[in-house]
Amino acid sequence: MTTSTFRSHGEGRRVEVRTRSVGLEGDLGIPRDAGGIVLFAHGSGSSRHSLRNRFVAELLREGHLGTFLIDLLTAEEEAADAATGYLRFDIDLLGDRLVAITDWLLAHPETRALPIGYFGASTGAGAALVAASRRAAAVHAVVSRGGRPDLAWSFLPQVMAPTLLIVGGHDFAVLDLNKKALEALCVEKALAVVPGATHLFEEPGALEEVARLAREWFDHHLAERQEEGG
């Protein structure tokens, strides 16, 4: 069972989602007339404060999509991970926590009627694909930014949500991994390559292109689900 605590925070509200073992801090933003909600899965030692993910989230909210940026690790775990780098690759743990957060969204009055999508970055994309395979009836779209779908290799055939893989054209090793993952996925899928971009999409206009592609993917698949009646 999960519980929550709200307090005011910028454009949304600060939320603590309590799973059976830990409390996870997140920022929940739901614009008026939201057509869905996107749960962010951060990766590679990042958190809900990731400037890249917050930039994408802002543009999604402008497009009338709710966003939920939440830490998948506690402050203590983040400190340990900063020293070891181990937990960021614990895809089973991160996937379990995404499942728990998804269940919270399905039960919470403000979000339970909204179709759910996942936006995963780097190793967080692997966790998002694991969770999507385990909550196939609830997750209706997945977008991966510079993701590591290879970390979820055995789960890829069970993913039912339409999946968009976005990779920088100069992120050569990750691009190769995503090409192989695309073949393993058995759903509606696409690989979008941003020309000239490297792993963090720091080049001018690269992150804007990521946000545009993600917004279009979520707009189409979450709106389609809402028209079907949830």
**CATH second-level architecture:** 3-Layer(aba) Sandwich
The CATH homologous superfamily name equals Alpha/Beta hydrolase fold, catalytic domain
Widest sheet: strand ordering: 1-2-3-5-4-6-7-8-9
CATH first level: Alpha Beta
What is the percent of helical residues? 25-40%
Structure commentary:
The chain has helices at residues 51-62, 75-84, 91-107, 123-134, 172-184, 206-227; strands at 3-9, 12-18, 23-29, 37-41, 66-70, 116-121, 139-145, 163-168, 189-194. It is an alpha/beta fold and 230 residues long. The chain has one domain: 3-Layer(aba) Sandwich (Rossmann fold), CATH 3.40.50.1820. β6 (116-121), α4 (123-134) and β7 (139-145) form a beta-alpha-beta unit. The longest helix is centred in the C-terminal third of the chain and has 22 residues, at 206-227. It starts with a strand and ends with a helix.
